[in-house]
Design brief:
Elements: H1 2-10, H2 16-22, H3 29-50, H4 55-74, H5 94-102, H6 119-147, E1 157-161, H7 167-181, E2 188-192, H8 202-215, E3 223-225, E4 232-234, H9 242-257, H10 268-274, H11 290-299, H12 304-310, E5 315-321, E6 324-329, H13 344-356, H14 361-374, H15 385-393, H16 400-405, H17 418-428
Amino acid sequence: MKTVLHSMLITNRRPTLLHRTCMSSSVPCCCVCRIVGLLQQYITLTLYRQQAITPGIEAATQLLGLLETTSSEQALLEPAEFYNDAVNEPDFNIKEDYKRWSSGSGLFSFCGHSWIYDPAAKSRILQLENQMQQLAAFESSMMQALMGGARESCPFLLLRIRRGAYLLRDTLMQINNAKNNGSLKKPLKVKFIGEEGVDEGGLQKEFFQLLVRECFNPEFGMFVHSDETHLHWFHASSMDLDTEYELIGILIGLAIYNSHILEFQFPLVLYKKLMGQPLSLPDDLAELHPEIHASLGKLAVMTDEELAGMGLTFQVETEAGFGERVAVDLVPGGSSTPVTAGNVQQYITAYADHLLNGAVARQFGAFQRGFLRLCSGKALHFFRPAELEQLVCGGRVVDLSALQAATHYDDGYNQHSAAIRWFWEVRRGGTDG
């Protein structure tokens, strides 16, 4: 197999036959994994040795792309199997690769095969794209100021805000103004009124931390928080809060655009929706509403008699605001359509769709519009939903071993100090003996 692959790659022959063979239902997954490993090895070694993209590398990447597509469709391998070590090295000229891709020249670029990049490399590409857009906005503002054609000559998106109860109101007003005058893509600077200090990044980080707490405060009424799952979701109601949801979408996009991680958690389904990916119903409901998902699973195996005894129809109640609830038909004539063993799967799908889409369509639509005002560049589509989640709010699981290994101690403490050992024991939920 290795000899066939090598011959095919150095002669740049199209690997259609090999692809068909690899994806045959009779070929074990372990064989596909081995072919992927050989292709990755070829790309890595050739890049290290040649320090250039050869025709063989192009052919290997194309074949790897065919395998990645089929693997994704059939859930054969984890996405990480397609990350390439050499391409994701810090020394790899990712800026030049991005320029080749974005120029539209038709030249080969790994950005055209974004699955080969790991999340860290994709983040660097997104940051590069954002920096280029910020530079363009900065230069445009400076040119307008020099030409005397703009009343506002500030090359930055400067937010002057007050702390406390005024924080959210000041921010939303100024973001709305920036949206209307086209200043959102300028480099961000934050100024707390009445305080000294130059924003070199620290003020921005504090600003976003304070702002997230305000935006997701239950008293604000825009998002609900589950104590069971520790996730946020849109507050389903008929209240007109489109402007507020759009501005919060802009703020989250602004954090990504300026390379800040936010302290909140949405379910993965939100990122699938933002990326325009189809949902898997009712499976995507499980993370946000595990009890409802489990109940729907029980419905799926009930008999006609059991379902008739429950008296379910294709109509559900949803909140309209201020505690008021209204009836919503899941299908036309839903109130007079009983749930039976013959249509229970349709009911399950329709109900899950209502919870994840229909009930919050207005809120999510405004939120998405705001988010895409800043995050609509090509590089954003490199990310899978789980990778986008990691970009927005970091990983959900803290690697305590890595954190402990990277910790430095002051004031006479070290890793062997009793207080330090006790601290890590408590964090791990036990003792080390």
